[in-house]
Write a structure and sequence with these properties.
By secondary structure, the protein is α/β, with parallel strands linked by helices. It contains eight helices and six strands. The strands form two sheets. Strands 4-3-5-6 form a four-stranded parallel sheet. Strands 1-2 form a two-stranded antiparallel sheet.
Length: 196
C-alpha cells in the first residue's frame, strides 16, 4: 500500500467518513504546506496523550477532573447521566443546566456485547452512596438501548433514596405533528403540562 492509501484507510475509520471522503481529505492534505500537516499530526498525538476520563464523572479531561467538576458554581447535588461525552456538549448548548454530569461510556447493547460491566453505572452508584447527590437526571438517548439503559440505572438507584428523573421527550419546536412518529406523539402527550 502507498502512503496515500494508508492515510485514506485510517481516515475512513472515522465515523461519517467513507472511502471517497477519505481520499478527498488525503488529497487536500497533500496540497497543504508540510508544516500545517505536522501541526495536525502533533495535535492528534497530543489528543490521545493529554485527554483522559475525568476521575469523578468520566467526561473528557486534561487533568484529574474535567472543567465541569472543577467549577465551584455547579450544583454538585444534581447529576445528569449521559451516554457519551458528546452528549454533555449538547446539554450545555441549551444553557439551562447548572448541575454536574456522569458519562456512562455507552449504552446497554447486548447484541454488540455491551453489558452493565462495560458501563460506569457502578461508579455512579458509588457517587450517589456518598450522600451528596439529591437528584439523578437520566438523559440517555430515546432509542431502545437508551431506554433500557435508563431503566437499568433507575433500578440500580432504586434503594438509595435519591430522586431519579428522566428528561422529557416530545415534539421539537418547529416540528409538524403530521410528520412525528407515534412514539414521539405518545411521549409528548404523557409529558404535557398546564398552560399558565
Amino acid at each position: 500500500m502507498s502512503a496515500i492509501d494508508d492515510l485514506a484507510a485510517e481516515l475512513a475509520r472515522l465515523p461519517g467518513i467513507g472511502r471517497k471522503t477519505a481520499m478527498r481529505l488525503t488529497y487536500h492534505l497533500l496540497k497543504q504546506p508540510a508544516e500545517q500537516n505536522r501541526r495536525l499530526a502533533v495535535a492528534i498525538a497530543d489528543l490521545s496523550e493529554r485527554i483522559q476520563p475525568c476521575a469523578r464523572c468520566f467526561n473528557l479531561a486534561e487533568g484529574e477532573l474535567c472543567a465541569v467538576c472543577r467549577d465551584p458554581r455547579r450544583d454538585a447535588s444534581v447529576v445528569c447521566v449521559v451516554e457519551e461525552p458528546a452528549d454533555i456538549a449538547a446539554v450545555e448548548r441549551a444553557g439551562e443546566y447548572r448541575g454536574t454530569y456522569h458519562v456512562l461510556g455507552g449504552r446497554l447493547a447486548p447484541i454488540e456485547g455491551i453489558g452493565p460491566e462495560q458501563l460506569t453505572a457502578g461508579a455512579l452508584s458509588r457517587r450517589v452512596a456518598d450522600g451528596t447527590i439529591r437528584e439523578v437526571i437520566l438523559a440517555t438517548n430515546p432509542s431502545l438501548e437508551g431506554e433500557a439503559t435508563a431503566l437499568y440505572v433507575q433500578r440500580q438507584l432504586a434503594d438509595t433514596g435519591v430522586r431519579v428523573t428522566r428528561i422529557a421527550r416530545g415534539l421539537p419546536v418547529g416540528g409538524d405533528l403530521e410528520f412525528a412518529d407515534g412514539v414521539t406523539i405518545a411521549q409528548a402527550l404523557q409529558a404535557r403540562r398546564e398552560m399558565a
